């Protein structure tokens, strides 16, 4: 084993791997092999005879966890699979299931995701007669989550608010209190509870703490800079006995402070563990020198950071460049045009490309463009799929079958499909239930007594009977069977079929997709019960989706990109107000976090990094006029930014002289920024070639031959198309990414492999097609 180590690790990495006993911190920049050290360290421990069950490794995303597991299994086939590598949430969910009886928790508990959580908060606000305008749903839901991240109960929150005379806090604490009661009644926990309940179980039951401390002799935490207080305490408790704790992280990659992450957890590690060994890693194995220096140039603008030395021996065979678009569709198409020839030309696989954006909503344009260009892609992260109403409905049925006292699910589907049970009937019943301290389900037999009319009473009874009829299947049948039965017997599918619109057809397709997903679950997992399925889904929903990125371009938010790497990375929407987002530019702390996010994004790239921005963008249906993000200039593209700015002004002037109906308003994305939104017909941007098929792009695996290229429908007979690879006697090989004019006047913008852009007059440029 030692041989394997020295062959695959540098001396600092080897030192960290061999230091198995006592606290160890690896504080190092991106791509220096921190995660690699963790996996090798686990493999090394197992090779020493340490039982896999006594090793615990925690990380932040399911994707990172499964990747790590795979690497360990590759290193130590067989035993490697038995180590506990998981996310914090997933570990705690298992812990609570296993120890439910000891900590008076019903083991059938449900896990509420953020949408469920908001629904409960909404109920609480209404019930407490609180002004919904002053106490915004998401602000309160967020405040509750942050309190849980800090291990604060409703009474802690109330006491703090009272101490500081904070009326908002006092009200929020009231809502929080009722929220907890409602969760208890529904036998549900939210994500914050998973960690908080685990911590309090360990703190209150010394036997439990002893047991788990003894069990996990070696603990490792990746991305430690992003742990919040609750996670920090959890790790501290578990590591309290053996103190064999290894944490790795990078302060420059701390991007979750909005979720309660506390960078001091990493900075204070040596205070917490005075005898801790510290290892520094400085060699980056991931990126080209150009990417590395550009990323460092950006992050250097942050004041609050520990400066690190970072170097690489990697060859300088890539580039960093700026890609400018006229609007968001153009941005997506330009990117698709760059991906296509590379991937179909077999230079890269689709999975070698990633597109990162700041907000989830940006994924849609890429999805559309990629579909058009027949580029296989996967959207990681938001689980758009499970967020869809029809999927949520079916899931609510399943949750209700599992636990009829789940009020949120009950209310969601009681009248879907329509059963003639009105809102008022449900509210009456709910009031009664609350008064009697029971669930809505339990109050159904009293429906008539509380004044509901015959119709709704009958409908309610047949609905509860419908759910009850699943009780036998629930315990012995397959989840797939239950799901199919729910979809057909509830009348849900029928209603969609009768509707027969394009929207309802998509819904039916999604429901069919859900059945395949359930089927997949049954074949893959050992726990095939309904409870097992629901837990699995709740955990996946939290942060990322299952790994399905093979052979597909990855679309994800920058936050989810942490820890991953790709040959080609596009960071999109680099515009002031979008990235840095909103008003963060006006707040030093927030701006520095945005900049760290930029650093995370940039350091994912191995070879080519594209910084993309668009002069216009539709935001909530309004066209916004953009300034390039300051991060573009910070990355060393000042001239380009200035040139772009000049072009922007020019094109703006042109547009004005073309006589747009312009009512210029201040506003747009942020206070005091140079944004203008236009009350005008959206500017029809010059989008070159939106029809990908016209280039003869082939489906995955296919190859393009020149003969297969069809002529551009506009009648342009020149051989120069967007995406065409060309060679220039001085600048070398490149690709056409923009063109304008025709005939003798045909101008081309060529992106050369060196990363340079050149605008060339085709007639005299002496280009050859390659
Ligand atoms: P991040 O900060 O982005 O999480 P990291 O420090 O965890 O990065 P890794 O993902 O472990 O870095 O490593 C980055 C890349 O470098 C990986 O592809 C890894 O396999 C490779 N690598 C790390 N160390 C070595 C080494 N000694 N020899 C060869 N490749 C290495
Ligand atoms: Mg890592």
Automatic annotation (TrEMBL):
One of its GO terms (cellular component) is DNA helicase complex. InterPro entries: DExx_box_DNA_helicase_dom_sf, DNA_helicase_UvrD-like_C, DNA_helicase_UvrD/REP, P-loop_NTPase, UvrD-like_ATP-bd. Residues 289-563 form the UvrD-like helicase C-terminal domain. GO terms for molecular function: 3'-5' DNA helicase activity; ATP binding; ATP hydrolysis activity; DNA binding. It comes from the Bacteria. The keyword Nucleotide-binding applies. Belongs to the helicase family. UvrD subfamily. This is DNA 3'-5' helicase. It comes from Endomicrobium trichonymphae.
């Amino acid at each position: 084993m030692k041989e394997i180590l020295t062959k695959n690790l540098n001396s600092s990495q080897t030192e960290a791997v061999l230091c198995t006993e006592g606290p160890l911190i690896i504080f190092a920049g991106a791509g220096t092999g921190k995660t690699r050290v963790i996996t090798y360290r686990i493999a090394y421990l197992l090779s020493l005879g340490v039982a896999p069950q006594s090793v615990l490794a925690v990380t932040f995303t399911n994707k990172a966890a499964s990747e790590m597991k795979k690497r360990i299994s590759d290193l130590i086939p067989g035993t490697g699979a038995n180590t506990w590598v998981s996310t914090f949430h997933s570990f705690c969910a298992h812990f609570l299931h296993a120890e439910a009886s000891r900590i008076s928790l019903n083991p059938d508990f449900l896990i509420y995701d953020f949408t469920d959580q908001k629904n409960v908060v909404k109920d609480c606000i209404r019930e407490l007669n609180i002004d919904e305008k002053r106490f915004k749903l998401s602000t309160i839901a967020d405040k509750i989550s942050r309190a849980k991240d800090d291990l604060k109960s409703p009474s802690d929150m109330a006491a703090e608010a009272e101490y500081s005379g904070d009326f908002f806090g006092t009200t929020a604490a009231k809502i929080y209190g009722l929220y907890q009661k409602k969760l208890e009644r529904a036998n549900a926990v939210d994500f914050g509870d998973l960690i908080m309940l685990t911590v309090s179980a360990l703190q209150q039951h010394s036997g439990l703490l002893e047991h788990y401390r003894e069990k996990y002799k070696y603990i490792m935490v990746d991305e430690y800079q992003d742990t919040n207080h609750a996670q920090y305490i959890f790790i501290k408790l578990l590591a309290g006995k053996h103190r064999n704790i290894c944490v790795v992280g990078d302060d420059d990659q701390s991007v979750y402070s909005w979720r309660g992450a506390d960078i001091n957890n990493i900075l204070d590690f040596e205070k917490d563990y005075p005898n801790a060994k510290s290892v520094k890693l400085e060699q980056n194995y991931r990126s080209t020198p150009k990417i590395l220096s550009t990323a460092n140039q950006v992050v250097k603008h942050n004041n609050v950071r520990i400066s690190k030395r970072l170097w690489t021996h990697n060859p300088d065979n890539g580039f960093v460049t700026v890609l400018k678009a006229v609007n968001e569709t153009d941005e997506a198409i330009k990117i698709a045009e760059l991906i296509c020839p590379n991937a179909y030309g077999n230079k890269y696989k689709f999975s070698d490309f990633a597109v990162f954006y700041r907000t989830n909503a940006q994924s849609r344009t890429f999805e559309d463009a990629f579909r058009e260009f027949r580029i296989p892609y996967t959207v990681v992260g938001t689980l758009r799929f499970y967020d869809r109403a029809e999927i949520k409905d079916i899931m609510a049925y399943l949750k209700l079958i599992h636990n009829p006292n789940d009020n949120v699910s009950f209310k969601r589907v009681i009248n879907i499909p329509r059963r003639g049970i009105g809102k008022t009937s449900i509210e009456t019943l709910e009031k009664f239930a609350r008064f009697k301290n029971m669930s809505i389900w339990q109050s159904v037999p009293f429906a008539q007594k509380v004044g509901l009319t015959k119709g709704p009473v009958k409908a309610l009874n047949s609905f509860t009977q419908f759910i009850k009829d699943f009780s036998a299947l629930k315990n012995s049948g397959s989840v797939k069977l239950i799901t199919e039965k729910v979809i057909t017997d509830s009348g849900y599918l029928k209603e969609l079929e009768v509707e027969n619109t394009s929207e309802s057809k998509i819904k039916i397709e999604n429901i069919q997709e859900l059945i395949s997903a359930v089927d997949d679950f049954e074949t893959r997992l050992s726990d095939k019960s309904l409870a097992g399925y629901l837990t699995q889904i709740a955990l996946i929903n939290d942060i990322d989706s299952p790994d399905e990125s093979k052979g597909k371009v990855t679309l994800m938010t920058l936050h989810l990109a942490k820890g991953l790497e790709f040959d080609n990375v596009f960071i999109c929407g680099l515009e002031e107000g979008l990235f840095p987002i909103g008003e963060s530019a006006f707040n030093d702390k927030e701006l520095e976090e945005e900049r760290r996010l930029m650093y995370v994004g940039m350091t994912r790239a191995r070879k080519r990094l594209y910084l993309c921005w668009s002069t216009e963008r539709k935001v909530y249906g309004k066209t916004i006029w953009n300034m390039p993000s300051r991060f573009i200039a910070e990355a060393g593209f000042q001239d380009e930014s200035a040139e772009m700015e000049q072009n922007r002004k020019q094109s703006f002037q042109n547009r004005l002289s073309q006589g747009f109906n312009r009512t210029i308003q201040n506003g747009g994305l942020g206070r005091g920024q140079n944004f203008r939104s236009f009350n005008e017909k959206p500017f029809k941007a010059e989008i070159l070639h939106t029809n990908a098929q016209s280039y003869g792009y082939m489906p995955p695996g296919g190859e393009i031959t020149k003969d297969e290229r069809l002529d551009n429908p506009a009648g342009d007979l020149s051989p120069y198309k967007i995406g065409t690879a060309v060679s220039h006697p001085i600048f070398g090989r490149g690709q056409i990414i923009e063109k304008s004019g025709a005939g003798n006047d045909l101008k081309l913008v060529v992106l050369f492999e060196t990363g340079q852009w050149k605008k060339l007059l085709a007639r005299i440029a002496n280009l050859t097609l390659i």
